[in-house]
UniProtKB/TrEMBL annotation:
Pfam families documented for this protein: CpsB_CapC (PF19567)
Enzyme nomenclature, EC number: 3.1.3.48
Record-given protein name: protein-tyrosine-phosphatase
Superkingdom of this protein's organism: Bacteria
Reaction equation(s) it catalyzes: O-phospho-L-tyrosyl-[protein] + H2O = L-tyrosyl-[protein] + phosphate
Length: 246
């Protein structure tokens, strides 16, 4: 089924210079399930620059039961990474936001008006549970908008409990939520069903942004070695519009 999506010429490697900015990755060492050392961060960012990225907004997890990250912790780690990539002679620009798991802690932050680390344009990257749907997803996303943020839902193709009624994605977009698909979802990395849902979302023009969601160097190696994917090359992702937005 997926053959028509891929150019089989082996000499063509994926190039993401037309995407320009990656808005979902885990490149700050030791604070979540992403990289463990600053050397690993430098190696991954080197590969991302080779792929064509000029800008990165890395997004550590904030999941209060697992990763109690704060803006202070994230900014400290970001500065360490910035110094290391500068010493390595890399030219890619790196900033940090966060990937917020919608849980009780997130709702407390939202209701109390505490600081969020955001993507350009006050975009708030959020994720849902993988196994059990939230009872109030729409209400929470509406609350984010009411607080003056633009919600961006990370990897919607991976929330399999929505598969029985995929029109829920249309409702979320109509409500004002932007959706971000993972590159590796289009390669079959997470499984065929997730690839099919990613294609469905793209076919229905529901995706705004493309992200690597890179946690380890193997993720980038898979992207780097992959053949050109027609969705990646031709879909009008809006990433590059974020580069000059504060």
């Amino acid at each position: 089924m997926l053959n028509w999506l891929f150019d089989k010429k082996k000499d063509k490697k994926v190039s993401l210079d037309h995407i320009g900015i990656d808005i979902h990755s885990h490149l700050i060492p030791g604070i979540d399930d992403g990289v463990e050392t600053v050397e690993e961060s430098v190696a991954m960012i080197t590969k991302m620059q080779a792929l064509g990225y000029t800008n990165i907004v890395t997004t550590p997890h904030i999941i209060w039961d697992c990763y109690k990250n704060t803006p202070q912790i994230i900014r400290k780690g970001l500065e360490e990474v910035r110094q290391a990539i500068s010493a390595a002679g890399l030219t890619v620009k790196i900033d940090a936001a966060a990937e917020y798991f919608i849980d009780e802690h997130f709702n407390e932050l939202l209701s109390s008006g505490q600081e969020f680390l955001t993507l350009p344009g006050k975009r708030l990257l959020v994720e849902l549970p993988y196994s059990t749907p939230l009872m109030n997803t729409s209400e929470t996303l509406f609350s984010i908008i009411q607080k003056g943020y633009q919600p961006v839902l990370a990897h919607p193709e991976r929330y399999t409990y929505f598969y029985n009624d995929p029109n829920v994605y249309k409702k979320l977009v109509d409500q004002g939520c932007e959706l971000q698909v993972n590159i590796l979802s289009l390669s079959g990395y997470y499984g065929e069903n997730i690839t099919k849902m990613a294609e469905w979302l793209l076919t229905n023009n529901l995706i705004t942004f493309l992200g690597t969601d890179a946690h380890k160097i193997q993720h980038l190696e898979m992207i780097q070695k992959s053949n050109r994917n027609n969705w990646i090359m031709k879909y009008p992702f809006q990433n590059k519009k974020l580069i000059d937005i504060p």
